[in-house]
């Protein structure tokens, strides 16, 4: 069955991709990258989601059969951490670019070519 | 000895990276020598793993925490991984020695940390037996590569790094979607179990998942159209890092791509995935060779040449036959040796003469004869002239393409070699027949490394059989998935 979350996830991915491809401002491109990563994370989570089941924590009345699949959640935690690292790295490079070029417009940052 | 010690290949660089700040306080050069020490140790461990795997013929499988796969995570060091982990370690050793004279920019401790993590990432990508782990190692490699590209802190390096980050971000998202699709339909992330269950997968989902994984890894593997970052990063990164990018970061991604594709070879839509890869590889060759022709900067020219060679390797992998995979692995080994030689020599010239433009190379034969000789050997070998190593792997690739009836691919490889000859002979002409200059004294250590690599190029060129045998075994490791599944001690879950 196709869950409604898939549509949300794919819409987020496409919005992010649109921003990366079309926007001229470096910061907007990086925001697009973040939105895309969020979409991917949502997709991963929705793959493990089973309607009506509870969180994968064993407690009273909740055995392994009543819980959702915990692996995608673990994966998403890792992916979020990696995404944050990438974003931090990208922002620090953006600061460096602003210092050297005095602009964040990608059309003016073209010293390397050929 | 116990095979579990092979886990040190991952543990040693990681722990050493955390110890770098301790050595920073012990003097200006302590960090550089610590880097050499760690890479030398890593080479020792890799050599032991290589010896163990090739003498027993059995892969070393490291099981993390005693949990059997697929519940636990395993490392798989088969013939391919053992060979390439050794290549990674040796190249890292060379580049860490080269770093002493090549990297003067501060802060050196951060450079050393990122250097070790880059080595760790590539090693992990080759050794891991789990596709999500592969993603994590890929991101370690990618993030350190972004940081190292920007290391010189010039406008150019920041620009190159930003291009790399944006493409890499898109690529890693695609890869993750591919992993999600595979996990969603098979319920496992372990490579051996994926191979086991692949037949039950829906062909369309498998096709989309594999295509997304190929596109995701194509950023690191520099396949067209996701390789726009590569020439810029090669040009702007510190010289030792360029050597590492070309020698093993790309190879690790290519291997990962080949491994995942061949794991799923029972899927019905497999042929269309191979066709996608073939088209990307052929376009990579054409675009890169044509771009290389009009370069004025030698480092950038060799970067484009390197991308074209990657196209050949991907083409060989995409043929879907044993002969193709073997030829691809053989070309990977040869290309690693040749490009380390070329980037080392060109980087050394760029440090000594203050730039890598073509004019700087005029009269190099008189000014720095040893380095000029090394560049000549590398250039002649890359073109594929007999008695040099690349000749044999190009022949193998051509034979493999003819075997499956792709005559156009054989023609492509040959005509690409002609284009290579044009721009490399232009470089050689500038080196030997133009310009005048005083003799400059060359560094003994770097001269020795270049001499060793050049000797290796010629020795493999004259006696290719031993290395071909290694490549054949490594290729079988990728191609023979049934054996791969049998080697991994899977728990009886889900199967």
Automatic annotation (TrEMBL), chain A:
Domain of life: Archaea
Cellular component, GO, one term: plasma membrane
Main location (coarse class): membrane
Transmembrane segments: 6-22, 29-51, 71-98
Keywords from the UniProt entry: Cell membrane, Membrane, Transmembrane, Transmembrane helix
InterPro entries noted in UniProt: CPA3_antiporter_subunitC (IPR050601), NUOK/Mnh_C1-like (IPR039428)
Localization terms from the record: Cell membrane
Pfam families: Oxidored_q2
Membrane topology: Multi-pass membrane protein
UniProt cross-references to PANTHER family, sorted A to Z: ANTIPORTER SUBUNIT MNHC2-RELATED
This protein's name: Multisubunit Na+/H+ antiporter, putative MnhC subunit
Organism: Thermococcus onnurineus (strain NA1)
Lineage of the organism: Archaea, Methanobacteriati, Methanobacteriota, Thermococci, Thermococcales
UniProtKB/TrEMBL annotation, chain B:
NADH:quinone oxidoreductase/Mrp antiporter transmembrane domain span: 130-418
Entry-linked InterPro entries: CPA3_Na-H_Antiporter_D (IPR050586), ND/Mrp_TM (IPR001750)
Broad class of the protein's primary localization: membrane
Transmembrane regions: 6-23, 30-50, 76-99, 111-128, 164-186, 206-229, 241-262, 274-293, 302-324, 336-358, 370-392, 404-425, 445-463
Subcellular location: Cell membrane
Pfam families to which the protein is assigned, alphabetical: Proton_antipo_M
Topology class, membrane: Multi-pass membrane protein
Record's keyword terms, sorted: Cell membrane, Membrane, Transmembrane, Transmembrane helix
GO CC field: plasma membrane
NCBIfam families in UniProt: PRK08377.1
PANTHER family: NA(+)_H(+) ANTIPORTER SUBUNIT D1, NADH DEHYDROGENASE
Name of this protein: Membrane bound hydrogenase, MbxH subunit
